[in-house]
Design brief:
Elements (H helix, E strand, L loop, with lengths): L1 H21 L3 H21 L6 H5 L9 H16 L10 H32 L4 H17 L5 H17 L7 H5 L12 H4 L8
């Protein structure tokens, strides 16, 4: 079990190191800038602020429901759940390996589900000190995957969010976004993913 925990810790360190390393690449830094713009825009919307560049730029590049936090929780939870399942006493060795593989595959939905529920619950109760402590590692990890965006990145994030909100009937599409050629009917899918696909008729 100790070896399994150590192996999991190595995986976690490698993951964090990989994220840090690719963050040195200029193109990825720009991607992370757009990631920060996305978070700022969502934070502004959830705070009830008008979606203008000036308002959005005042908000944080971190968000409690970020996928980066989700990945971190998945890694940590998998270390805890997988550590006892070494099957070290099973013979022959190939059978132990097969059992380890099968157990991990079967537990993937469990790990993802637990990580999702932790993020969901902790976000809903972030006024609690313990919940803030639980959220903190994910927010810290986001410092590697986000950058402060420039105004053009924020404009892009706003333009991406507004049609989705308009399609859901939350807001009316701004004149600037409408003039950009968005077709609201193309955003009226049954799922959020459908809402992100623009009309093929638009340039």
């Amino acid at each position: 079990v100790v070896d399994a925990f150590f192996e999991g810790l190595i995986r976690l360190i490698l993951f964090i190191g990989y994220i840090w390393a690719i963050g040195r690449i200029p193109d990825i830094q720009r991607v992370f800038g757009y990631h920060g713009a996305e978070h700022k825009t969502i934070n502004a919307y959830e705070a009830g602020d008008a979606l203008t560049v000036e308002n959005v730029q005042r908000h944080s590049v971190q968000h409690t429901r970020c996928g980066t936090s989700f990945l971190l929780y998945v890694l940590v939870i998998s270390i805890i759940l997988f550590a006892p399942l070494t099957f070290s006493g099973v013979e022959p060795a190939w059978l132990a390996l097969v059992l380890r593989l099968i157990s991990r595959l079967l537990l993937v939905p469990v790990v993802a589900g637990i990580a999702y529920e932790i993020i969901r619950f902790s976000t809903a109760h972030q006024s609690n000190a313990f919940m803030r402590l639980l959220i903190a590692p994910g927010l810290a990890m986001q410092k590697l995957t986000t950058r402060q965006p420039d105004d053009s990145m924020v404009e892009c994030a706003i333009a991406a969010l507004e049609p989705v909100l308009a399609a859901d009937g939350v807001i009316e599409l701004s004149a600037e976004t409408a003039e950009a050629g968005f077709d609201l009917e193309s955003y009226a899918g049954d799922t959020p993913d459908d809402a992100l696909v623009p009309s093929r008729d638009t340039a």
